[in-house]
């Protein structure tokens, strides 16, 4: 289409404002020298950031979130890689039902997953803690990781793998020397995005952590006290910066990898 | 023996596919299907005392649910809020996707990445930032009072249904933007040009060609916004107050303070069933309506 539409352009830019402005208030008020978050701003301070160094519970919660995030993202990416391969490579009976089943955790209200895991975990006689949270997060991250990996794998020419087989490589050799390098950017993107989903996840953690708080649980606990809010804002601002960096990295990797693969093997993606 | 299995494995795509899928399917079965089945059976038990549950099967919890007007009200309110959120998100996101699909020529991917970027920042923090904006001493109220437009803060902004709807519309935007964009992007533009050439007005082109063709995206967005938002807990808990409470806040109470696990399980089951039924009806009606339009 060669026309321009300035009304729609203005609307789209306003919509961008609606999406971004609320999130930007967190970093703005994190430098504000007051307990209340209201205008006019009271003055510039980095005090709220310094405060974070002394909060031991915060460090504990951060460490808990990192542990859960690393395990959940690695396990869900591995599971998703196999599943994505199956959907991208084979036409098989029941593929739609299997796909729907694996995407389910993405659709079902999280509170229902949380409650269901809570009931079974407690009735098996286990203690609540980071393990059920990790299980829940793995379940929740797998569909996301699979969507990213399917997009990556679908474009590839499977004759490359067949050629490797024909030339005498076994299945593992083919996987590690042909498929894995090709999927690599997608795998990293899936790992990063699953880690972020797990790192930010609240509901499953809320029901399943017991006394071992993850970072979102820590923030939730602090939000009730007005005088503790400023350092939550500072923490939030730091989290936003890190997440944005990771997400942009993941998207960049996905695209760059795709471009490079196009050039390397000259196939249509 | 091993040779036999190898042969079967090599021959059948079905076997290959399912062996690749097995870890994912085992995860789904063990971490979702079995726990949800157990939740369903717990909804038919009775909580006798704090620690004790009577395991005889009964449908009494479901009867209890519909006899407690509070629970029914909360269920209806949850559905109403999600319905509003879905509708508003769709209507506000549609023009944006339309613009990117048909008017943006360069770097479409960049636009999309930028649109979905806020979605990746912590859900809790996004909800919290709305608390900063809408609060009694928040951004809107303090700015209006400073400017001398108001003398008292607007109270309806915070702790209300409105606050919950606005926040959820912001939080779930990405889930409308992506499916809508994908379906609009697929539309063959020559169809729209043909419509114009045949003398249809812009509005007619939109209703008779563009909108029906974008329907898969609309229905996809309905599915992935309406179902999860019915069960949202954080937003009503932080911003809802009494007026904006939803059923999930009650479900949480059954598993926490009230400690009536069967009642909580029954409420969760009813919530899921209702929302799935409504979604099926809504997507079918949308399809039918569009067929009549074209």
Task: Please describe the structure with a list of short key phrases separated by commas or semicolons.
heterodimer; A: 269 residues; mainly alpha; disordered C terminus; B: 294 residues; MetI-like fold; 2 domains; two-stranded antiparallel sheet; 1% strand
Secondary-structure topology with pairs:
The complex is a heterodimer of chains A (269) and B (294).
Chain A (H helix, E strand, L loop, with lengths): L5 H25 L16 H5 L4 H34 L5 H13 L2 H14 L6 H25 L4 H8 L4 H30 L2 H6 L6 H8 L6 H37 L4
Helix pairs in contact in A: 1-11, 3-6, 3-8, 3-10, 4-6, 6-8, 7-8, 8-11
Chain B lengths: L1 H10 L1 H30 L3 E2 L5 E2 L5 H8 L1 H34 L5 H13 L2 H12 L4 H8 L14 H11 L1 H14 L2 H9 L4 H12 L1 H16 L3 H7 L6 H9 L5 H33 L1
Antiparallel strand pairs in B: 1-2
Helix pairs in contact in B: 3-15, 4-8, 4-9, 4-12, 5-9, 6-8, 6-13, 8-13, 9-12, 10-11, 12-15, 14-15
Compute the number of strand runs of chain B: 2
Low-confidence stretches of chain A: 265-269
* Sheet with most strands of chain A: none
Output the CATH class name of chain A.
Mainly Alpha
Helix content of chain B: over 70%
CATH class of the largest domain in chain B: Mainly Alpha
Describe this entry's structure for a reader.
The complex is a heterodimer of chains A (269) and B (294). With 269 residues, chain A is mostly helical. Residues 265-269 of chain A have low confidence and may be disordered. Chain A has one domain (57-265): MetI-like fold, CATH 1.10.3720. Chain A is 76% helix and 0% strand. In chain B, α8 crosses α13 (234-240) and α14 (247-255) packs antiparallel against α15. Chain B has 294 residues and is an all-alpha fold. Chain B starts with a helix and ends with a helix. Chain B has helices at 2-11, 13-42, 60-67, 69-102, 108-120, 123-134, 139-146, 161-171, 173-186, 189-197, 202-213, 215-230, 234-240, 247-255, 261-293, and strands spanning 46-47, 53-54. Chain B is built from 15 helices and 2 strands. Chains A and B meet through α1, α3, α4, α5 and α6 of A and α2, α4, α5, α6 and α7 of B.
């Amino acid at each position: 289409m060669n026309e321009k539409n300035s009304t729609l352009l203005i609307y789209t830019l306003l919509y961008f404002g609606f999406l971004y402005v609320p999130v930007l208030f967190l970093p703005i008020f994190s430098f504000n020298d007051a307990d209340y978050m209201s205008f006019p701003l009271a003055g510039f301070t980095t005090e709220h950031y310094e405060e974070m160094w002394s909060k031991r519970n915060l460090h504990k919660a951060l460490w808990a979130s990192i542990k859960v995030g690393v395990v959940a993202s690695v396990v869900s990416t591995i599971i998703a890689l196999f599943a994505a391969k199956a959907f991208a490579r084979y036409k098989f009976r029941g593929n739609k039902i299997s796909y729907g089943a694996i995407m389910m955790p993405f659709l079902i209200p999280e509170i229902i997953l949380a409650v269901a895991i809570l009931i079974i975990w407690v009735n098996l006689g286990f203690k609540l803690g980071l393990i059920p949270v990790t299980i829940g997060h793995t379940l929740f991250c797998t569909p996301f990781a699979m969507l990213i990996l399917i997009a990556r794998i679908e474009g590839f020419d499977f004759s490359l793998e067949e050629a490797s087989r024909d030339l005498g490589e076994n299945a593992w050799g083919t996987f590690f020397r042909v498929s894995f390098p090709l999927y690599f950017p997608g795998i990293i993107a899936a790992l990063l995005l699953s880690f972020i989903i797990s790192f930010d996840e609240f509901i499953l953690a809320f029901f399943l952590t017991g006394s071992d708080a993850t970072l979102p649980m820590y923030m939730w606990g602090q939000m009730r006290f007005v005088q503790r809010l400023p350092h939550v804002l500072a923490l939030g601002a730091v989290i936003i910066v890190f997440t944005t960096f990771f997400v942009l990295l993941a998207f960049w990797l996905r695209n760059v990898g795709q471009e490079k693969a196009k050039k390397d093997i000259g196939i249509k993606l | 023996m091993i040779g036999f299995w190898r042969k079967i494995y090599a021959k059948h795509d079905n076997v290959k596919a399912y062996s690749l899928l097995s870890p994912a399917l085992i995860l789904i079965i063990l971490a979702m299907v079995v726990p949800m089945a157990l939740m369903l059976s717990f909804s038919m038990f009775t909580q006798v005392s704090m620690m004790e549950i009577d395991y005889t099967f009964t449908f009494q919890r479901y009867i209890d649910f519909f006899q407690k007007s509070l629970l029914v009200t909360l269920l209806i309110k949850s559905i109403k809020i999600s319905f509003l959120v879905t509708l508003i998100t769709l209507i506000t996101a549609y023009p944006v996707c339309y613009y990117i699909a048909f008017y943006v020529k360069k770097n479409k991917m960049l636009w999309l990445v930028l649109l979905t970027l806020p979605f990746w920042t912590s859900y809790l923090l996004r909800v919290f930032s709305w608390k900063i904006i809408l609060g009694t001493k928040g951004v809107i109220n303090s700015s209006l009072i400073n400017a001398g437009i108001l003398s008292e803060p607007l109270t309806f902004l915070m702790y209300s249904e409105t606050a919950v709807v606005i926040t959820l519309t912001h939080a779930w935007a990405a889930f409308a933007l992506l499916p809508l964009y994908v379906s609009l992007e697929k539309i063959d533009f020559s169809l729209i040009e043909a419509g114009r050439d045949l003398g249809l007005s812009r509005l007619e082109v939109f209703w008779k060609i563009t909108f029906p063709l974008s329907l898969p995206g609309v229905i996809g967005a309905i599915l992935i916004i309406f179902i999860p938002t019915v069960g949202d807990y954080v937003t009503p808990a932080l911003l809802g107050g009494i007026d904006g409470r939803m059923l999930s806040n009650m479900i949480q109470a059954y598993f926490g303070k009230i400690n009536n696990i069967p009642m909580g399980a029954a409420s969760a089951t009813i919530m899921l069933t209702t929302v799935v039924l409504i979604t099926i009806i809504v997507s079918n009606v949308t399809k039918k309506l569009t067929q009549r339009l074209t």
